[in-house]
Design a protein that fits this description.
The chain is α/β, with parallel strands linked by helices. It has eleven helices and six strands. It has helices spanning 24-35, 68-76, 89-99, 130-137, 140-146, 148-153, 158-167, 170-182, 187-193, 224-228, 254-262, and strands at residues 10-14, 40-42, 82-87, 110-116, 207-212, 233-238. This is Serine aminopeptidase S33 domain-containing protein. GO terms for molecular function: monoacylglycerol lipase activity; short-chain carboxylesterase activity.
């Protein structure tokens, strides 16, 4: 948390999968906003870094999309207005919260949303070489290992956890755990259910989508036609930057600068 001017909108950053406050892109965005006098909060996914789920938790939580914590944090922030800024999976979480979630007690405080490096085609990553898929999912291994007892308590078998550790892919995690929390019959059904593209028409606050043309994880798909149907939605595509990175030679981040300017 970074304290700022309470009269300005507070910023809540939701990181990418297994991301945290020390992640480079998150630090750059937090620094950009703090220099402008905003209070900044980073919402850590439960179980991230070296933290563990409480064994007293009564339900199997889906940290992929679980907007309960977003709504709770927004309600605790003293500022009257809040801006949500998400990276990759964190962006999906924000879009779901703003359009489909039932956890909306404090949603009226949110005045703008920014969604960067969004995956509009969830099947794209499955076409990548296995070594890249394993690299993307490598952060999941310590996450599930640190929380084995929690998962066992909620009916996830040791075999399922071992499969995730062995395969080290997001898809395997979705297969063994995520679809159980969403009660879908298949990973594809879950991907269809949480696809961002159909949510775009339901966004009711100014929104900014940011992508890079060379993003190896999300691929080139950006649903411009859907975005054109909602006057509140804006989209910017950078020529380069890959996934999560557009830092310039002077250490500043073009994406962060754009976000900061758009929020003024």
């Amino acid at each position: 948390m970074i304290n700022g001017d309470i009269s300005k909108p507070a910023i809540v950053i939701t990181p990418y999968i297994c991301g945290h406050s020390k992640s480079a892109c998150v630090r750059r965005l937090a620094n950009e906003f703090s220099q402008s006098g905003h209070s900044v909060y980073v919402l850590l996914p439960r179980g991230s870094l070296d933290t563990k789920f409480s064994l007293e938790c009564k339900k199997l939580r889906c940290e992929v999309i679980d907007s309960e914590d977003i709504d709770t944090l927004v309600g605790l922030i003293p500022n009257k207005q809040v801006i949500l800024a998400g990276y990759s999976l964190g962006a999906l979480n924000i879009c779901y919260y703003m359009t489909k979630s039932q956890q909306i007690v404090n949603r009226s405080k949110v005045t703008k949303i920014i969604m960067s490096y969004v995956e509009f085609d969830y099947n794209y990553v499955l076409k990548l070489p296995s070594r890249i898929q394993k690299g993307i999912g490598s952060c999941i291994v310590p996450y599930v290992n640190n929380n084995r007892e929690y998962f066992y308590k909620h009916g996830i078998s040791q075999k399922s956890i071992d499969n995730i550790v062995k395969m080290s892919t997001v898809y395997q995690y979705d297969q063994e755990i995520t679809i159980k929390t969403w009660k879908t019959k298949s990973v594809q059904e879950y991907y269809d259910l949480v696809s961002i593209t159909p949510m775009i028409k339901d966004i009711q606050v100014p929104a900014l989508f940011i992508s890079t043309a060379d993003d190896i994880i999300t691929g080139p798909l950006v649903p411009f036609e859907e975005m054109k149907k909602n006057d509140l939605v804006n989209s910017v595509v950078f020529n380069y930057g890959n996934h999560l990175g557009t830092a310039t030679s002077d250490g500043r981040d073009m994406v962060c600068q754009l976000i900061s300017q758009w929020c003024q």
